[in-house]
Amino acid sequence: MTKEALNETQGLRQSRELEGHLSVLGSFTGTALGVLATASGIYTYLGVSSLLDDNGALSFFAATAYSIAVSVGIFVFWSYMMRLLPAVRTGASRIGLLLSMGLGSLAIVAMSSWLNAAALAGAAAVEQHLANTVQEYQTALERSHTIAISGQGLQRDVARVRQSFTDLSEQEATGQLSGLAGRGAVFRVLTQKSEELAGLEAQIASQTPLVDQAFAQGNAILSRMRALTVETGPVEARSVEFSEEAVRLAGIITGLRQLSVAPLVQRAAQDLSASVVLPQLDGRTAEDRTGQQATLESVIGVLTQRAETLRIAAEGVMAMTPPSDTAYTPISAADAVILYAGNFVPSWAGAIAIDLLPAVLVLILMVTQAAIRAGRESIPVEETMTLSEFRAAMRAVREVEGEMDQTQVKQEPLPTETDSPFEGPKPVAPVKGL
Prior knowledge:
By secondary structure, the chain is mainly alpha-helical. The protein folds into 2 domains: 3-122 and 343-383, no CATH class; 124-336, Ferritin (Up-down Bundle), CATH 1.20.1260. It has 11 helices and 2 strands, in the order H-H-H-H-H-H-H-H-H-H-H-E-E.
């Protein structure tokens, strides 16, 4: 046997072996495809149910109809692909069917896979949304508290300026500033500004308990919101309570932002030098009044400097980046799965795989059918026939030959003999022995 004949024999044997395997596998492939389609339909039903607000009979039938349509569509689509794609031989036909398979796969993902993912990881995705919202609220609360505390820190600046005016007033009382001991015009101006700053300092101090109380309440609400994120039970019910707590926390954050005293200190700094009530000079002599006037001018200069210092400090607090506006938005399980898809890659992979796994079977069938055709193409048809095929062919040949013999017998005329030119033909008697 030549090497070429040996290769042909091996290719034929391999082709028959593959055909036998395909025959066995084909006996349950349809059942397996039906199971996959049914499983996908079940998870699609769960995903559709999470999108419907109403739990009545109409919603039940709507979700059931959609899931059945998805199951039937998946089963029919992959049945077409398994039958047709491995059977075509031309490159154009294969490319066309492969493009059709890609388009159909996208359609399956669009109508089923994302709903499957919602059923598989919808509750976890909603919990992820709640956790992210808690983090956003915590950031906003801490930022508001930082700004409020920075505003409270202006109390030290105000106290320092107030103390400086108090010290100057004491010096004026002993005559160390204008040279006139007592409580004259300069002393009254210094006392006036010292009392204004003392009132501002007291007002700032009164805000401190309110800031601490608001921050403590906000942290308590955050703790409750975190507990709701990880509690057991339906996530929809927890989301409702979470929303109520979020509204309360948003109000506390807004109130905490309003407790900042930086705008108040800024306005007080502007008024510190602009609203000086100058008393009448009470010096006995012109020289005394001139000294008082010079001292008042110096005091007003000091007021302007101190006011500018307070204004810059207050504007520094006001320039701090405010917390971003945070609001909790309820979200469905399907939307949460799409929004946080990166966090649930395994669930998405499982949801897509249950729908697109038959694509792998189609590719396997394509490769197998190509191998079978490659093993048979170089061998004549008569050498690939099995014993049963050969018997059927022999029966067909006998039937054809029998029909041909009957047709020839019907078409042959009997031989005739003419006795006379005026008489018609007479039948010739058959010869005995023939």
